[in-house]
Design a protein that fits this description.
Length: 136
């Protein structure tokens, strides 16, 4: 199964000094080598936002070009709003971007790889699959 990698995992990989030590980073490296990583525009934007150094921005932008954006449809935005409303009605708050990630992943039959615990709450109420790293 292909995997939509959330910003939280990318941030771990990009900001950690001992990159290979963290299991999430090892899993991301495996997924990249296995050609299973998917990207979407809002995640790319979150990754690149806040990088002040122009050369670092360009370097990271070029690296991320290896992962083309999945298309986002009008239906995805509608599904994301439904997910938002359903979860909110059950006392669960989430961001618009989180629910858009859920909608795009559901439509494309992707699992979501994240360290954000909010997605565990969402998964109790909406049909998403969370990526579970294998023991390597």
């Amino acid at each position: 199964m292909k995997v939509l990698v959330d910003t939280s995992v990318w941030f771990l990989a990009l900001r950690r000094s001992k990159k290979s030590a963290h299991p999430c980073i090892r899993e991301l490296a495996f997924l990249i080598q296995d050609h299973r990583v998917e990207m979407m525009g809002p995640i790319r934007q979150e990754i690149l936002s806040g990088i002040r150094d122009v050369s670092q921005f360009r370097k990271l932008r070029r690296r991320l070009e290896n992962f083309p954006d999945l298309p986002i449809t009008t239906g995805d935005y509608i599904t994301a709003a439904k997910y938002f409303n359903l979860c909110r009605s059950r006392g669960i708050q989430g961001s618009n971007t989180d629910f858009l990630i859920c909608a795009v992943a559901a439509r494309n039959k992707l699992s979501i790889y994240t360290t954000d615990k909010d997605f565990q709450q969402y998964a109790r109420h909406i049909h998403i699959v969370l990526h579970q790293p294998a023991d390597r």
